[in-house]
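ingest -> validate -> predict -> emit
validate: passed (alphabet ok, no gaps, 205 aa)
predict: started
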Amino acid sequence: VLVKMADEEFEFKPFSVTYKLITFALSVGMIYPNPKTEKWRLASIPILVASIMPLALMIFYDMYKSWMVKDIVNIIRHSTVVGPFLGGFFKMILMYHKRIQAKEILDEIDRDHDLFNECADIYKDIARAAIKNSQVYSERGWAITVSTCVMTFPVMAIALNIYNFTFKSEPEKYMIHDLVIPETESELRFETPYFEVIYYYHYIV
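emit:
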């Protein structure tokens, strides 16, 4: 208890306290190098990869069909979604593989913050300004940017569906990411129950 009280008196706190948004994002993305969660992360990664595989395979199949007919626009449309999404899973796997090195980086930051507490005021001012700059731009600014990009597709789909079913006599349906079911007519994707199943699957994933 005394150690905890002493730590709370320090101006410069550990990484997890100084950058709470980044720590939260790393934890949600299962890339935060916490030794206590290693087994849970190792068990969760294959489950998450398996959950996204049906969607990824359908997208890749549609991209292949688009390539055969030179539909570059549709390939780009799919790439803007599946690229970053699969990149996130690759990063999850990579960060687990490099978890020891990642933990060493965070430990180094914690040691630096401990040293800042012992520095002269002029150096504390420099450290304080650098941390504040990182919190504003690298943490909050990045969090807003990523959240906006991630929420654009579901928010637009929800808004368009609400508007169409509220104000139009013959409403159109909008998917979060428009995707044709393999080897079927393109309009089948808007039929029940395919539309509802894929819509909620996209939303959850």
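Residues 1-118 form one domain.
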